[in-house]
């Protein structure tokens, strides 16, 4: 299971997130998208060396997140079960592609090339 798919299942969980700039954010997850952008409510953000700031809602860009600290009460076994249906490849897609009509340089269109060399024209 991919990490983002796991994080998407953490709705309504209270987590602590440390950002790359050292800021620590604690709040309840309302959503996580495929870019790992995380949306929180009831947030307490503590910038490094400053007093905490409270926000009703906060969005964090995924590439700014260093790591998530999950609550100890979280049941990881049930969240890590991969419930997505597995895709089955058809027989046509499973084998190697044939490459079309041979592997040469192609048949050519006749508009370029020797300019009448074989027809007795000048070269």
Q: What would a concise description of this structure say?
A:
One of its GO terms (cellular component) is nuclear lumen. This protein is mainly β and 123 residues long.
Describe it.
It comes from Chromulina nebulosa. Residues 2-74 form the Sm domain. Residues 91-123 are annotated as: Disordered. This is Small nuclear ribonucleoprotein Sm D1. It is a single chain. The protein has helices at residues 3-8, 76-79, 91-94; strands at residues 14-19, 24-32, 38-46, 53-60, 65-69. With 123 residues, the chain is mainly beta. The chain has a domain at 3-71: SH3 type barrels (Roll), CATH 2.30.30.100. It is elongated. The model has no long low-confidence stretch (mean pLDDT 83).
Q: Which tags fit this structure?
A:
123 residues; repeat; mRNA splicing; Small nuclear ribonucleoprotein Sm D1; SH3 type barrels; mainly beta; 5-stranded antiparallel β-sheet; 3 helices; mRNA processing; LSm4/Sm_D1/D3; single chain
Layout of strands and helices, then pairs:
Layout: H1 3-8, E1 14-19, E2 24-32, E3 38-46, E4 53-60, E5 65-69, H2 76-79, H3 91-94
Query: What separation lies between the terminal Cα atoms?
Result: 65 Å
**Helix vs. strand class:** mainly beta
How many E strands? 5
Looking at the structure, the CATH topology of the domain at 3-71 is SH3 type barrels
Radius of gyration: 29 Å
Query: What share of residues are in beta strands?
Result: 25-35%
* General form: elongated
Question: Can you give the mean pLDDT?
Answer: 83
Low-confidence stretches: none
Order of helices and strands: HEEEEEHH
Largest sheet: 5 strands, antiparallel
Q: How many helices does DSSP assign?
A: 3
Please report the first level of CATH classification, the CATH class of the domain at 3-71: Mainly Beta
Helical content, roughly? Answer: 10-25%
Please list the strands of the largest sheet in the order they lie side by side.
4-3-2-1-5
CATH-defined architecture of the domain at 3-71: Roll
């Amino acid at each position: 299971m991919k990490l983002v798919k796991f994080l998407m299942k953490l709705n309504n969980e209270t987590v602590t997130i440390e950002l790359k700039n050292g800021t620590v954010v604690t709040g309840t997850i309302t959503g996580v998208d495929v870019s790992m952008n995380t949306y929180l409510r009831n947030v307490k953000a503590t910038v490094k060396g400053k007093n905490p700031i409270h926000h009703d809602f906060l969005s964090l860009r995924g590439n700014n997140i260093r790591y998530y600290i999950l609550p100890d009460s979280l049941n990881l076994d049930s969240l890590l079960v991969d419930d997505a249906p597995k895709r089955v490849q058809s027989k046509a897609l499973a084998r190697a592609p044939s490459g079309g009509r041979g592997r040469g340089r192609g048949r050519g269109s006749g508009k370029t090339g020797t300019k009448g060399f074989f027809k007795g024209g000048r070269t």
